[in-house]
Amino acid sequence: MTKVAAATVLVEMALAYASLWVWGMAHPEALPEGDAGPESPVFAVFALPVVLPFATAAALVFVCAFVLPASVLARRAETRWGGSGAWCWVPAAATVVVAAVIAVVGTAIGPAHRAATAPVYLWWWVALTVATVPAALLARLSSLRTDEGRPLQGREVLGMGCAGVCALSMGALSAVALLSALFG
Question: Which residues make Cβ contacts (< 8 Å) with residue 3, sequence separation at least 6?
């Protein structure tokens, strides 16, 4: 379950990176002559092996802090109130877990940093909930399939997710190129 959730978070990171890359391709900025810029393929080739272990570690910390508690809370809610197979407990549990973590962190560092106000915490809550729900849903699916004897592998999620990110990026770039060609 942890491998599937971590793979899901890595795919979410890849989707966010690809979205920012496509945004940068669609809205280019003029660079000084001879400056390769951050979108240089050479930069990506050298930076990826350095960034990937840190991204994996961040994904595991995220899974331990948000996804696993949400999955456990959803499973307990299913058995107590909704019966097995009720997937709707996962988003509710993720919302509660993220709100609890943000409340604790906000209470701990709020007095020291008066600049952080309620809207800041609201945006963090929304962003972390949106990131937690897909990973928790796939972790739940992995747990259910393991109980049935058909385990969901992390490499399947990572492979198919990254293939989906590549397809989405290529589709978006094709649409941008087509619109640029049509409308100049």
Answer: 153, 154
Using alpha carbons, select from 127, 63, 117 the residue that is nearest to residue 95.
127
Query: For residue 90, what are the contacts with CB-CB under 8 A and spacing of at least 6?
Result: 70, 71, 74, 133, 136, 137, 140
Q: How far apart are CA 162 and CA 11, in angstroms?
A: 6
SS3 120: helix
d(CA 102, CA 53): 26
Query: pLDDT tens for residues 5-63?
Result: 888 887 887 777 777 777 776 666 666 666 555 555 556 666 667 777 888 888 888 88
Query: How many Å apart are CA 145 and CA 153, to the nearest integer?
Result: 10
Q: Which residue has the tokens 């989906």?
A: 164
Position 26, amino acid: A
Q: Helix count (H) and strand count (E) of the chain?
A: 6, 0
Q: What's the pTM?
A: 0.71
Report the SS3 class of residue 8: helix
